[in-house]
Amino acid sequence: MGCSSSKTADAGTISRWRSTGIVALRDSKLKTFPDEVFDLEKSVRTLDLTHNKMVEIPMEINKLTNLQRLILANNIIERLPMNLGLLQSLKVATFDGNRITNLPDELGQLVKLERLSISANLLTSLPDTIGSLRSLVLLNVSNNKLKFLPESIGSCCSLEELQANDNSIEELPGSVCNLIQLKSLCLNNNNLNQMPSNLLRECKGLQNIALHGNPITMDQFQQMEGFQEFEARRKMKFDKQIDSNVIISSKGLDEGVDL
C-alpha cells in the first residue's frame, strides 16, 4: 500500500511502535495506511490515524490480530471492510467524521467491542447484527441520516450510553426497554412523537434522557409509567454532582432531562 509509508517512520520509530504497541500518526497527511504498520502485525494494540486523508481501510487490517483500539476519526473513509470482524480483540472503534454510508454485517463479530463511535457520517441504517455486540457499553451514531434503530439493538445487554442526536429517527423500537444497564439516552433533534411506554419502568438505571428538538412534549414524558422513579434517580445524580464539587462546563450541570 503506497503512502509516503517508507518515509513515514524510521527504524527508531518502528522499534518504539513495536515495544509500546501504540501507533499514533494523527495529522500526518496520509492518504493510505503505512506498510510498516501491517509488518508489525500482532504487536499493534492501538492504531490512531485521526485527521488524515484516507479513503479506505485496506483488507490487510486483519493482520493486526491483537488490535484493541482503532481510531480513524476525521478522514474521508466511505466504507468499512468486511474482514473488520476478524479483529477479535477490538474494544474501541472510532470512525467519527468520515463519509461512511453503511456498516457491514460482519461488525457483529466484534464480540469484545465496548465502544463504537461513528458520528458525523452518512449512515441511513444500522445492521441487525449490531445486536450481537453484547459487550458494547457506548454507541454513538449521532449526526447521521438514520430514520430508525434496529429492533436487535435491544440485545446489546451491556449498553450504558446511547447517543443518536441529530438524525431523523421517528420511533424507537420497543426492544430498547430491554437495555436494563442503560444510564444515558441522548436523542436530541430527531422526529420522535413518543417513547416506548415501558422505557422508564424497565430501564431502572436510566438517569439521563435528552429529547430537545423533538415533537414529544414534557407533558407526554411526565405521564409515562415510571416517571417518578426516573425523576428520583435524576435528582440523586444531580445532587451527587453538586456534592462532589464537579467542574461545571460552559453548559452547566447536566440535569438529566432535556425536552
Automatic annotation (TrEMBL):
Gene Ontology CC annotations of this record: cytoplasm
Protein name: Plant intracellular Ras-group-related LRR protein 7
SMART domains membership: LRR_BAC, LRR_TYP
Species whose genome carries this gene: Solanum chilense
SUPFAM superfamilies: L domain-like
Any one GO biological process: response to other organism
InterPro entries linked: Leu-rich_rpt (IPR001611), Leu-rich_rpt_typical-subtyp (IPR003591), LRR_dom_sf (IPR032675), LRR_domain-containing (IPR050216)
Repeat in keyword set: yes
